[in-house]
DNA sequence: TATTGACATAAACTATACTCTAAGTAGTAT
DNA sequence: ATACTACTTAGAGTATAGTTTATGTCAATA
């Protein structure tokens, strides 16, 4: 699978895919004799995971740590699990924060709708 | 109220407060004869709002647009309401994305817990 | 053969949101 | 009077995550 096809499949850009490879999140991707990338099934699974995690704002640095542990093999399973559990907690916290903001936003919108605004921003 | 007190009250830094003022999100803050900032009630309300929205990731540029509209007076009420409603939708979308990621994270953690991982990242 | 288009690389650039530094002043403590 | 601390400013620097640019190669088409 070419970089273009992969980029299209995951709604990423070619640049982002090469960037992810450069920082070691994926790959190194297999290349043909002309030096053109040929993404394998395994690569696609990684990219899907990375994309999902990134879309929730999990930093590249953390994901890098995770894939590095993965590549070290079975002995790192506990450490990987711990990492995921930590990110889970952080993510829950962020979701709660955003939900609170959403609630305030809804309240404010209600005030606008009912014309009850006075001297508040 | 001094910048230090305000920063402490909202868990921001002095630098961030001055930065928000520089980009026009708040202020201009009243200053005493020595040029020291003295935050007023109205300023605090704005800062609380800004802090809340920022904590949910709403960009400064959008917030700036909102406070600018606010400062233009009542004639901008509809526009402000529309802006808030748009941000509400974006925020809901982001929360959903993050919730999906959280679900996947939980699923993955389950796999770790039950030792059912095989060749997946 | 000449050109075109997609790919490649390294490195510079951008966007967003701060954060820090340098240099200076005002008010207080010794 | 001197030192110390907290504040001030303008402007430079940092962090994160890409994105763009310059330059080059290769395969296929005109």
What is the secondary structure topology, with strand pairs?
The structure is a homodimer of 121-residue chains.
Chain A: H1 3-10, H2 14-22, H3 41-55, H4 60-72, H5 77-113
Helix pairs in contact in A: 4-5
Chain B binds a DNA duplex (30 and 30 nucleotides) through α2.
If you had to describe this structure to a student in words, what would you say it looks like?
Two copies of one chain form a homodimer. Chain A is mainly α and 121 residues long. The longest helix of chain A is centred in the last third of the chain and has 37 residues. The termini of chain A are far apart. At the A-B interface, helix 3, helix 4 and helix 5 of A face helix 3, helix 4 and helix 5 of B. Chain B binds a DNA duplex (30 and 30 nucleotides) through helix 2.
Q: Uncertain spans of chain A, ≥5 residues at pLDDT below 50?
A: none
Beta-strand residue percentage of chain A? under 5%
Largest sheet of chain A: none
Helix content of chain A: 55-70%
Global shape of chain A: elongated
What's the gyration radius of chain A in Å?
Answer: 21 Å
Count of beta strands of chain A = 0
Mean pLDDT of chain A: 96
Distance between the termini of chain A: 52 Å
Largest interface, C-beta closer than 8 angstroms, per-chain residues: A-B, 41 and 41 residues
